[in-house]
């Protein structure tokens, strides 16, 4: 390994924030793949992206790729030689194109082959070919074209740096010849200057107030926040916002401003959303209370005359005034009155309005209450269902859609609704609600959306899932598991279909829920997840069964469980009846297995009904020695038909008890 370094930068017009993560990912993947393909060794690849530039440095790069022996296949023997054994034009042409001679030829399986040593290409030559290819292959969400349309890229490029050990590596991209010059921060040094290496580049750019590396800009933001907090403040840090600021700026510099104190009378969430989403700024607390301070980051070394601070204050105050106006307009009326506006808001064209959806959510919530016997919570659950979408009809949520659910909680509390109702309204959107109200209504809402979309043909395919139906089903399973609800999900789905005037469950819908259930459990073990997917109808039971089976993998109990099942199942799987008459048992071993089964069955089923799959599984393994004794001494496939069918019917009955744990045939024996 040598210390060769290759440094590349392409300077562009302002990058869209949505492209940054994609550029980083693509460059890392493509560089790794290309270096491997070229056979070049290296120590490290580092990718950097800033608003007006991106690139990479490869350190510890080998001088060249190693030589490699290549075997090439030529024409068939009868085409390579004539009847006199002389080489044909086909063979001579093959040899010429590969710079080989007749003595290099060998024949294998009636074909001509040559073996030659391919000299490893130098790093310089490989990079000249590789780098432009990588840059041209980058893909973007919204690329732009320029000139006569012959070029397409994320944004128009202005310069290219290409340095191999400090010397310009001659290459051309988008008509730009590479050199050693770059540019600093637009407000400090917007003139080109030369660099000699990546280290020199970093040093000079820092001097000219550019931090090229995204992670270093994140660190710089956190460092300035920490310094600010030493004054006794507590900045409400939001990592998504930190990331957004880091992507947007070349040199993120903290400024401290204040908004008018009167706006502190607004709900905190409304203030925070206004400041964060519309000005990309952070709210501030002191002694646990929100203050009228805010922290923002400008893309310049300093705000010498305070113009940036005053600009932020002016815009934030204007936005807060808008928020105050809409909020005060909303609270003049009862929260429930917003439901009337839902009659004018379309949920989906074929599925009616949001008001229609709310009515369906109420009915589904009633069904869930009945299944789970939640009568004590019935009033608060149904109130939550009735109001769960009401805030969508408010002025604030119309202007600030990201506050959907949050404003529902605020308005419900302001109108005196129970706390559980208010929190449930907000939490019914969450994948991990804390209230029963939020959980029940959340399941009802998601079931309605999933079933409705399948009925009208909006079925996810491949990577396309515009309505997020996969995550909605995953959330349903997650909520059921969290609250340990033994709910029959199929009953709820059938109710949802009837509410949408569909009497029969679409086959694709059943398969979708089943497939998502398998994936939901796949973190346990994929073959166990497959085995329990048939239990999706009562998801909690499937989840508990999967965990119980996984818990004993590799133990004697697991061996007893699976072997006992297999011996019974393999012989009875094609038998379609569980009919049998114990009075016809003639051998001691079949009577003993029958008696043990009669003892075990009610205990296993009772444990399962009490959701104790762990003990139920251990209990059913007690059948193993009796099953072994049965098969060692009883000939199931007796010639006498009535005895044979009677024995198969009994074994099918035992097999049915094992099926309470799932389709155990799908568990891979090789993984034990």
Number of strands: 20
- Which runs of at least 5 residues are low in confidence (pLDDT < 50)? none
- Beginning-to-end CA distance, first to last residue: 43 Å
Helicity, in percent?
40-55%
Helix count from the secondary structure assignment: 25
Main beta sheet: strand number and arrangement?
5 strands, antiparallel
What is the strand arrangement across the widest sheet?
Answer: 2-3-1-9-10
**Molecular shape:** flat
Averaged pLDDT, please?
Answer: 93
Q: What's the Cα radius of gyration?
A: 35 Å
What structural class do you assign from the helix and strand content?
A: alpha+beta
The fraction of residues assigned to DSSP E strands is: 15-25%
Short description:
The chain is 49% helix and 15% strand. The protein contains 25 helices and 20 strands. It has a 5-stranded antiparallel beta sheet, with helices on one face. Strands 15-17-18-16 form a 4-stranded antiparallel beta sheet.
Structure keywords:
five-stranded antiparallel sheet; 15% strand; single chain; four-stranded antiparallel sheet; 672 residues; alpha+beta
3D structure, described in words:
A hairpin with a 3-residue loop joins strand 19 and strand 20. The strands form seven sheets. The protein has a five-stranded antiparallel β-sheet with strand order 2-3-1-9-10, covered by helices on one side. Strands 15-17-18-16 form a four-stranded antiparallel β-sheet. It is 49% helix and 15% strand. The protein has 672 residues and is an alpha+beta fold.
Write the layout of secondary structure elements.
Layout: E1 4-12, H1 17-38, E2 44-50, E3 53-61, E4 68-76, H2 77-80, H3 89-97, E5 105-108, E6 111-118, H4 123-137, E7 144-146, E8 151-153, E9 157-164, E10 167-168, E11 172-173, E12 176-177, E13 181-183, E14 192-194, H5 198-207, H6 214-229, E15 234-235, H7 239-248, E16 252-258, H8 268-279, E17 282-286, E18 289-299, H9 307-330, E19 346-348, E20 352-353, H10 354-372, H11 378-387, H12 395-399, H13 406-414, H14 419-427, H15 436-455, H16 469-483, H17 489-499, H18 507-520, H19 526-532, H20 539-551, H21 556-572, H22 588-609, H23 613-620, H24 624-633, H25 641-658
């Amino acid at each position: 390994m040598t210390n060769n370094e290759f440094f590349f930068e392409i300077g562009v017009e302002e990058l869209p924030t949505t492209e940054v993560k994609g550029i980083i990912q693509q460059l890392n993947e493509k560089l790794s793949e290309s270096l491997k393909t070229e056979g070049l060794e290296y120590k490290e690849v580092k990718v950097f992206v800033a608003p007006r530039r991106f690139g990479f440095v490869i350190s510890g790069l080998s001088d060249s790729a190693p030589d490699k022996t290549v075997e090439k296949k030529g024409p068939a023997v009868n085409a390579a030689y004539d009847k006199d054994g002389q080489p044909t034009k086909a063979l001579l042409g093959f040899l010429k194109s590969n710079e080989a001679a007749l003595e290099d030829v060998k024949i294998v399986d009636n074909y001509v082959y040559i073996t030659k040593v391919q000299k490893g290409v130098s790093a310089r030559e490989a990079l000249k070919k590789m780098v432009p290819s990588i840059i041209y292959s980058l893909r973007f969400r919204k690329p732009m074209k320029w000139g006569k349309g012959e070029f397409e890229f994320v944004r128009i490029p202005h310069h290219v740096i290409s340095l191999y050990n400090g010397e310009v590596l001659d290459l051309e991209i988008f008509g730009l010849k590479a050199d050693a010059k770059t540019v600093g921060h637009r407000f400090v040094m917007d003139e080109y200057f030369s660099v000699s290496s990546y280290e020199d580049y970093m040093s000079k750019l820092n001097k000219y107030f550019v931090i090229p590396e995204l992670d270093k800009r994140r660190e710089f933001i956190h460092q300035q926040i920490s310094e600010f907090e030493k004054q006794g403040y507590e900045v409400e840090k939001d990592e998504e916002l930190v990331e957004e600021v880091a992507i947007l700026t070349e040199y993120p510099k903290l400024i401290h401003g204040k908004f008018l104190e009167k706006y502190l009378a607004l709900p905190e969430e409304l203030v925070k959303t206004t400041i964060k989403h519309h000005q990309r700024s952070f709210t501030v607390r002191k002694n646990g209370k929100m203050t009228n301070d805010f922290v923002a980051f400008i893309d310049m070394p300093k705000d010498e005359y305070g113009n940036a601070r005053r600009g932020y204050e002016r815009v934030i105050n204007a936005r807060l005034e808008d928020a105050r106006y809409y909020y005060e307009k909303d609270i003049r009326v009862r929260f429930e009155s917003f439901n009337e506006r839902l009659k004018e808001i379309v949920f989906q064209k074929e599925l009616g309005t949001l008001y229609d959806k709310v009515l369906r959510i109420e009915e589904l919530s009633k069904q869930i209450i009945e299944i789970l016997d939640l009568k004590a919570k019935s009033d608060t659950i149904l109130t939550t269902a009735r109001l769960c979408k009401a805030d969508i009809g408010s002025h604030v949520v119309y202007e600030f859609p990201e506050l959907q659910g949050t404003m529902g909680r605020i308005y419900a509390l302001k109108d005196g609704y129970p706390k559980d109702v208010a929190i449930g309204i907000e939490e019914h959107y969450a994948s991990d609600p804390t209230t029963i109200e939020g959980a029940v209504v959340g399941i009802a809402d998601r079931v309605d959306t999933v079933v409705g979309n399948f009925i009208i043909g909006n079925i996810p395919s491949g990577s396309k899932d515009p309505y997020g139906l996969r995550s909605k089903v995953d959330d349903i399973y997650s909520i059921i598991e969290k609250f340990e609800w033994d709910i029959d999900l199929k009953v709820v789905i059938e109710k949802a279909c009837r509410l949408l005037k569909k009497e029969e469950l679409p086959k694709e819908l059943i398969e979708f829920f089943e497939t998502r259930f398998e994936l939901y459990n796949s973190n346990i073990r994929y073959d166990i997840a497959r085995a329990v997917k048939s239990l999706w109808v009562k998801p909690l039971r499937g989840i508990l069964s999967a965990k119980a089976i996984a818990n004993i993998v590799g133990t004697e109990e697991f061996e007893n469980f699976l072997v006992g099942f297999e011996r019974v199942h393999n012989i009875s799987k094609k038998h379609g009846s569980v009919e049998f008459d114990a009075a016809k048992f003639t051998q001691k071993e079949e009577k003993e297995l029958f008696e043990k089964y009669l003892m075990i069955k009610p205990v296993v089923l009772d444990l399962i009904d009490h959701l104790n799959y762990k003990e139920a599984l251990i209990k059913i393994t007690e059948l193993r020695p009796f099953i072994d004794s049965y098969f060692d001494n009883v000939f199931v496939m007796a010639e006498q038909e009535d005895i044979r069918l009677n024995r198969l019917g009994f074994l099918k009955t035992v097999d049915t008890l094992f099926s309470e744990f799932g389709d155990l045939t799908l568990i891979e024996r090789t993984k034990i």
